[in-house]
Amino acid sequence: MMKRFTLTFAAVLIVLSALNAQVQNPVKWNYTASKKSDKEYIVTISATLEPNWHIYSMNTPTGGPVPTTVTFKRNPLVTIDGKTTEDGRPKTVHDEIFGIDVKYYGETVSFVQTVKLKSPVKTNLSGTVKYMVCNDKMCLPPKTVPFNIQLQ
Predict the structure, then answer these.
(1) Could you tell me which of 71, 48, 54, 45 has the C-alpha nearest to residue 127?
(2) Which of the listed residues 36, 52, 83, 131 has the most CB atoms within 10 Å of its CB?
(3) CATH number corresponding to 25-151
(4) Each residue's pLDDT tens digit, 69-97
(5) Helix (H, G, I), strand (E, B) or coil at 87
């Protein structure tokens, strides 16, 4: 009885290890805030992708793959100034699966947002990035990652 339990337990551990090894996360995120003035910051949310993977533009047309979206949580001390912009080398291709032209980024892309403080105080800016990545063989399900950036 104990031998069967030990063998079953070992088999479960092997399966869990194999499943864990298959989890892919080809995007590494970095979050920074650079002070432009005592009340203004440039927030940069950067993605670095593993080779052969790409992430979709925030401006992906309806009916296409999931666009990247940056959402900021409300902070009464911070005002979001304008729209988030993309900084990278986009590629535009006609995607046969979706039947539309899509824009995506490989290697790196940054999402840049200007924010203003209502008064010169230390605070945090938090939110989420929702994105989808693909390579030439597959797409991973959309993923949402939280961020928290200090504004000092």
Answers:
(1) 71
(2) 131
(3) 2.60.40.1250
(4) 999 999 999 999 999 999 999 999 998 88
(5) strand
